[in-house]
Design brief:
There is one protein chain. With about 50 residues, this protein is mainly alpha-helical. The chain contains 1 helix and no strands. About 0% of the residues are buried.
Length: about 50
């Protein structure tokens, strides 16, 4: 019984960690995209 509970808790913790990691990666990707867009806008303004 105790072992089953421990296994369940461990699995839940792992799932939470994976979800947080995925969310962080998505946020980083969004930030990178925003930075790239800003750079492109700056270049366009400079040339245009």
């Amino acid at each position: 019984m105790m072992m089953m509970m421990m296994m369940m808790i461990m699995m839940m913790m792992m799932m939470m960690m994976i979800m947080i990691m995925i969310r962080m990666m998505l946020m980083m990707m969004m930030m990178m995209m925003m930075m790239m867009m800003m750079m492109m806008m700056m270049i366009m303004m400079r040339f245009g």
